[in-house]
Amino acid sequence: MFKLDERRENGKELRNVVVDSLMDLMNKNDKVIALDADLAGASNFNRIKSAHGKSFIDVGISEANMIGVSAGLSLTGYTPYVHTFAPFVARRALDQVYMSGAYSKNTINIYGSDPGFNAGFNGGTHTSYEDVAIMRSIPETIVCDPADAVQMEWIIKEFSNLGQGIHYVRGNRKSVRNVYAENSSFEIGKGNLLYEGSDLLIIATGQLVSEAIDVHDELSKIGISSDVVDMFTIKPLDTDLLLERAKNKRGIVTIENHNIIGGLGSAVSEVMAEKMVGVPLLRVGNEDYFGQVGTPDYLQQAYGLTSKQILSKVKKHFSF
Amino acid sequence: MFILKQEELQKLQKLAAHIRFDAIQAIKNVGQGHIGGSLSISDLLAVLYGKQMKFNADDPNWELRDRLVLSKGHAGPALYSALAISGFFDEEKLSTLNKGGTSLPSHPDHLRTPGVDATTGSLGQGTSQAAGIATGLKLRESKNFVYLIVGEGELNEGQCWEAFQYIASNKLDNLIVIIDDNKKQLDGWTDDVIKQWDIASKMRSFGFNTIQVKGDNLESIDDGIEYLKTTKDTANCMVLDSVKGAGVPLFENMENNHSVKFNDDELNSQTDEALAKLQSIYEG
C-alpha cells in the first residue's frame, strides 16, 4: 500500500538509497553482491566496499565483463546487483545482458543511473534516452523507473525476491522530489493511481511523476480533472489499469524522461492500438533527439519536460 | 614429467577417438556443422572428462563439481559427445543435434543440456562468465576448478581481454584458461584475418602464468593441467598448439573446415571411412 507524501520536497539522493538498501540486504543475505565498473565513486558503491568489502567487486572499466562476471556469480548461487551509467549497460553491454543474462536465465539486478536529462555535464555521449526501449525488448525482463527515493528503496529490495532474470531499474544518482510517504509499498507490474479524474488520463514514469502531479494540479485550476498513474513498472505494463482508466476519457498523456519511441509512450500506444482504445494520445518525452551537455535543469527545459512545458503541450494538444 | 600411466593413456586415446566419432557422426547426421573446432579440442576434452575434472553424471548440478565453460560454443558437438560418453545422457541423443526441440543446440545451453555449466555461443562471453563462476567459487571457499576453453579466433573479441584483465588482477588460480590455437577461424587462417602474433607472450604480458602444449598430446595436456592446478596465487593459462580438424586427416586437410556440409557423396563415403577408423580405435 502506498501513501502520498504531501510535502513534495527533494528526498535522499537515489544513489544513497540504492547503497543503503543493498547494505540492508547484505546484512541479512551473504549472497548479495554489488558490482561496479570504475564508477563506485560516482555511485557511492565505495560505501559498500568499506562496510561489506567481501560483497563488492570493482571490475574496472569493463561493463560487458561486469555483466558476464555477474552471470557467473548467479550460476554459483549469488544475487548480483550492478551499477553503471544507463547507456553503458543498455547500449554497450546489451549482448551480454541478453545472452549471459536473460537468455541464460541468470539473475542480474541492474541500476542504470542518470538516464535522460540527468546525464547533465557528462553530456550526449553519456546520455541514454533509449535504455527502456532496449531493456524492455529483451524477453522476460522487468523494467522499472521509480518516481522517488521511497519507491527506489522498495524496488531495490523487491528485486532480491524476484528470482531469476534481468531486473532493470533506472534512476538519477542525485535526489528527486518525493511522491510517496515513507514505508509505502508497491507491486511489480501494477501502476499506482495517485489521483482520480474524469477528463484526462495522465500516465507518467520515473521522476516525471512529480511533473505529472504538477500538471494535474494546474489543470484542475482550469476545470480539467485528470487521473495520474505512476507506471513505475514499464514492463510488465499494467494494461488492466490502463484500459480501465482510459474509459470515457477525452485524452491520454504519457510522460517520460526517455525517447517517445520505445519507452512508456510506445508501450501504452501498443496496448491502446491492440485493444482499440479510441482515445487521443499525446506522448510527452524526448522527441527523437540525441542528448547534449548542460545542467539537468537546462536539459529538462531543452527537451520540453518541465511541468510548465508539459502543461502547455497538453493544453495545446487537447485544446483545453 | 609425464605422469599418465600407460593404461590411462590408452583409455584417454580411446576416449578422444570416441568423442571425435560421436561429434562427426552427429554433425553428419544433421547435414552440417562445426567440425574443425570440435575436433581440435577433442584431445583436451578427453583429458578433462576422462581424468582431470570432478563431476557426477547422475547429479549434473553436484555442488562439488568442477565447471567447464566452452566459450568457443560452436564446438558444442564435441562437448556433447564428451558428456554423453561420460554418462550425462544417452549417446543416442546425439542424433538429435540441432533438430527442432532438441536438448542439444549447436551452441551450449546450460538450461537444456545436463552437464553444460554455462550458456555460450556469442563469442567472448564465456570468458567473463567463467571469471564470475571462479569468483563465486572462491567466495564460497570451494576447492573446485573452472576450465575455460577459448578459441584463438575468439580472441578477436574485446571481451576476452576485459575478462583476462579481471582474472589476472584477481589472481583467480581456480580458473584455468585454455586457448585452443587451431590457427583458423571462419574466414580462413587466423594470420590472414586478424593476426594474433604470439598468444602465449600476450597472455604472459596480461599477467598469466602461461604454458604451451601440443593440442594432440594427451600426456602434455594432462601434465600441463596438473601443473597449472598446483600453481597458486596467479592466473593460469594453457595455450594449445592445435590443428583445426585434428585427428582426422580428411578434415585436417580440408581448406574450409570450420563448418562442413555433408551434401556430397564422395565426402560422405570418405567420412564413413574415417568414422570406421575412429570406431576401431575406441572399440579396439
Automatic annotation (TrEMBL), chain A:
- Pfam family, any one: Transket_pyr
- Entry coiled-coil feature ranges: none
- Residue span(s) of domain Transketolase-like pyrimidine-binding: 12-178
By what name is this protein known?
A: Transketolase family protein
